[in-house]
Amino acid sequence: MNARSKKRGDKREAFVALLHTAGLRPTQQRLALAKWLFSGCPKHTTVAEARAAARKSHTHVSLATIYNMLNDFSRVGLLRPIAIGGEHLFFDTNTDNHQHLFDEEKRCLTDIPAALARLAREPRIPAGKRLTRVDIVLHVGVDK
Ligand SMILES: [Zn+2]
User: Fold this and answer.
1) Band of residue 73 on the pLDDT scale cut at 50, 70, 90
2) Which 8-state DSSP code applies to residue 114?
3) 114 alpha carbon to ligand 1 midpoint, in Å?
4) How far is the CA of 9 from the centre of ligand 1 (A)?
């Protein structure tokens, strides 16, 4: 094994370990998706974008399979699902506390640091409950 293939092997092992640690069986399809999702820049992906990426890497999976894998990744905390208006569903590779700008024209999300988008006052939380997360999405459109 030369240095280049060893390096590639190390990355594969890192993704196998990531899925194992999360409690997911590292199938070839899940490994291919994990590699695309967690390599390079953070992503806010849709099911269609993830499927297009899979096709580019010659991994043939149905839209339903991609959707199920993205939901599996979300269930174990590897992704954060973000539903916008019941019409758009994104999966965020950044699971840290942060908020979003939604560009209504381009239909894409941009991160906002949590400190820049906070509730002025937190509502009264019912007894026996605790605030677990705040999701703020600021919609932006063309300035006419
Ligand atoms: Zn984000």
Assistant:
1) very high
2) G
3) 10
4) 29
